[in-house]
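Figure 3 (text version): structure tokens given as input.
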């Protein structure tokens, strides 16, 4: 027994269908935040465990859809749209340094290294003030490359030319 999908619409089910089909834009539009926000049944530990797992899975899929869209935008040369998508990633999980790096890289690709560095500063403050953490070395290295390019007067796009090659924000950028 279940609900009749002709009479009852479920955004989570529609999201999963769009995500499963690789319809990233539709999936992103359908994602409205955490599954069942405000619902906590402390006397039902199995339900709580299931709900936590589902929230994490759907959130991860939302991030994947945003990342795929951002990669596609960079590949076609629309770095400004990639910045918008990376901003959604950062809003979704502001503590994630990988998302911070993506936003910084997209900003540099959009020839806006100043905002890349501004976001780096905000991210560093967030990690320090709320979690007592320092920036990861990969992010520090990216900051130094961006600053170096600005000091040397190089084009920001030229310093991040690898963004337009291979997969836009792949692991090769994180390990440099």
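Below: residues designed for each position.
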């Amino acid at each position: 027994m279940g609900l009749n999908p002709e009479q009852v619409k479920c955004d989570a089910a529609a999201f999963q269908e769009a995500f499963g089909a690789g319809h990233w834009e539709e999936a992103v539009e359908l994602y409205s935040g955490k599954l069942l926000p405000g619902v906590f049944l402390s006397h039902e530990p199995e339900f709580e465990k299931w709900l936590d797992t589902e929230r994490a899975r759907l959130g991860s899929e939302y991030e994947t859809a945003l990342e795929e869209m951002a990669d596609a935008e960079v590949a076609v040369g629309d770095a400004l749209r990639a910045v918008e998508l990376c901003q959604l990633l950062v809003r979704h999980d502001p503590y994630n340094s990988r998302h911070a790096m993506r936003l910084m890289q997209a900003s540099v690709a959009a020839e806006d290294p100043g905002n890349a560095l501004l976001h780096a500063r905000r991210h560093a403050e967030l990690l320090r003030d709320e979690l007592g953490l320092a920036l990861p070395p990969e992010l520090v290295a990216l900051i130094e490359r961006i600053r170096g390019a600005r000091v040397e007067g190089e084009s920001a796009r030229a310093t991040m030319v690898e963004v337009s090659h291979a997969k836009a924000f792949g692991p090769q950028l994180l390990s440099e």
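Residues 156-176 have pLDDT under 50 and may be disordered.
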